[in-house]
């Protein structure tokens, strides 16, 4: 049933962090990119364009279920509340956990976080965004004192140099990449540099490609920092007046001459030098980075090595300049705004900062305010595996497929007393471990907000009524909270009330010392929320129409308002190759699929570009192993008992000794391909982000 009284509904794409606006013609049931949305100006990529083909009652979860038997909502939520209470009473609040998702809307995220951190009294709520951008968050916090993306997409149109690092944006963030192509067309003098171990679709438009050896990003950017210093290309005034610890960072970078970088990164010397010269000579530069940087045991150092180069040259807070992490998910950013990570509180505040903690406790009238950080995703599943966590509620994500070390995740869920799964679809490998299944509404049925990679908050709006008995995630959580006795704090009857409370919290006792400030939206009525137009935070008295660029006043959010350089000591990936496991495995997305395919897998047209998972291998490696195109191969990793079997794609786009396979396929879609099962728990010590770009594997023709 659709909302046919309205002609066109403006909403936002639920896939990547570009956050494209979409206009849905309700009667004709068709969609186009919103011409007025500043993220896409009418453009859509193929995934967004085929969204309506993914909407079908077939394969949807329609009714709550308890131990495989259908149940009423009252029975299901009563049981969830009871199990939560019993587990907390018997084992304490840290024996329960929520594992949530960048697919949730900000309002869903807000109430889940409020329930756990303010009322259950545990910070064991983490999100699949941990797998996506937690290293970028930690990098920003170390450098700027807050999780702040400095730039906007409009900076692309104004830059002289655009550096893409560990990002195949042409496939993963297509509309953003189209904007880069357009900027290049409008200004042919603009240079594009791509830093990636693979030759990708993004390389086609580049002026320079650096096919660095996997896991050597910190060496490259230490080399750049050192070069900038040696060539006196430093903005001395900016560094002196607005930053700390530059000397330590320069000292750490000193061993990395261009020659050394060329040798260690295994890239031609001339290319290294050319990149360094271009960065030094440009008056503006943007460094875009995503999973290739973040999904590493050096993820946070990777981010800070890049940020160091921007601080050294003052290429930040100015048009066309800045370090710019691109988020993978539609609402990874909104989630972190309301404290979706186990080490954060709502409104970007810190759990272990006494002042922040007391402020949030007061604002929420919290009954059991958490005092210490919770478990990040990998550690959470480790504790689940050990039996220390007895209750887990998984919302809108499929960790059996997306987390590393599938066998361990399966064992952990099998051994857990209570597993609750809220999801929209039945094709989900995690679902079979659930004792309690809760059908949730999905894109086109939900109302709420998301925040894209450039801090822009946009509305997702409902087009259809919920399918079956599906309910909104925020309603399910509030229902459970009420049944636990917290009716007053969760008495929300409309999603706009949750957004208003979130905005009020960002403004509460905030004298400008906290970056996330939505004070100008704090009194938004339901009517105003309904027509809310895309807007970039902060949205406050000084910037009632939002803020496109941060740090224009060279003031950061650290104690002394100065940005911090971080001295980077490069370290190798955790898994090193050896005789038994001689090849490096890298993973990523293909153009037309999304995550574990629970949505895109339903659209026949989205299978045309890449019909199956394939293993890309360099021709020399293929020749050594006597492999021909399409041969089935078996991939093994030391820790994983099960091989992954898939056909080969012989490609010069790979470096020798390095393989690539897509992340999307799983048991649901084919019997032997779940590539993340070959990865270990290796993760960044600061951010907890798993190293999903570098595993040591062996390969055998089957
Ligand atoms: Fe959706 Fe991203 Fe494509 Fe835009 S670029 S239509 S947000 S998938």
UniProtKB/TrEMBL annotation:
Residues 6-59 form the 4Fe-4S Mo/W bis-MGD-type domain. One of its GO terms (molecular function) is 4 iron, 4 sulfur cluster binding. Keywords: 4Fe-4S, Iron, Iron-sulfur, Metal-binding, Molybdenum, Nitrate assimilation, Oxidoreductase. GO terms for biological process: cellular respiration; nitrate assimilation. GO terms for cellular component: membrane; oxidoreductase complex. The keyword Oxidoreductase applies. Signal peptide: none annotated. Its cofactor is [4Fe-4S] cluster; Mo-bis(molybdopterin guanine dinucleotide). Belongs to the prokaryotic molybdopterin-containing oxidoreductase family. NasA/NapA/NarB subfamily. This is Nitrate reductase. It comes from Brumicola pallidula DSM 14239 = ACAM 615. The chain holds residues 4 to 705 of 920 of the full protein.
